[in-house]
Sequence to fold (207 residues):
Amino acid sequence: MPSEPSTTSAPGSSGIARNCDPRVERTRAAIVEAAVEHLLAEGPGAVTHANVATSANVSRTTVYKHWPTRSDLLRSAIDAIRESTPPLAALTGHIRVDLELLFIHTIQGMVDNQRAPLIAIMMERSLHDPAVRSVRDSFMDEFEPVFQTIINTAIESGEIRADIDLDLALASIMGSFLFLRFMSPQEFEVELASRVLDEFVTSNSPT
Fold:
């Protein structure tokens, strides 16, 4: 009996099974490229099956076959332009080092003049666009456990006070980045973001 075509999941696939046929892979790559172009040029609202199919010169049926929902399609476009959240195994156990490891790609995205506005648009759209909200929630499902592990490890080692609120801790860092990038007259640079992380560690130390 003939075997089924080999499938796998890879970055940009949103966990959807993939056929390893080179022709299929080329089609998928063209679709993701088109989705990224719409995302960067027009924002997440433009990442639809119809728009992407037209730009990639494929049928909408083909796009739906590989990305059944708009959330799947949007997630693949975002995954194509962002770095993954670091795995727990990559953490060092030192809070300042690990915070930078976790936040560095967020910082780099906010420094970038093309990606920073996209971050702001994604936050706004997540309030009323279910597909964008789904992508946001998926990202946070990856991000928050790593942040919690960093903080809990720092509490155990005595680097951070034991009564710290995890949600407020994350909000204080991300909120500072957002304020400095979008509301402050200062130019947002990696060095400025590093000072935010330094201040977070210092202000939450046990002494």
The chain has nine helices and two strands. The longest helix spans residues 130-157. Residues 1-17 have pLDDT under 50 and may be disordered.
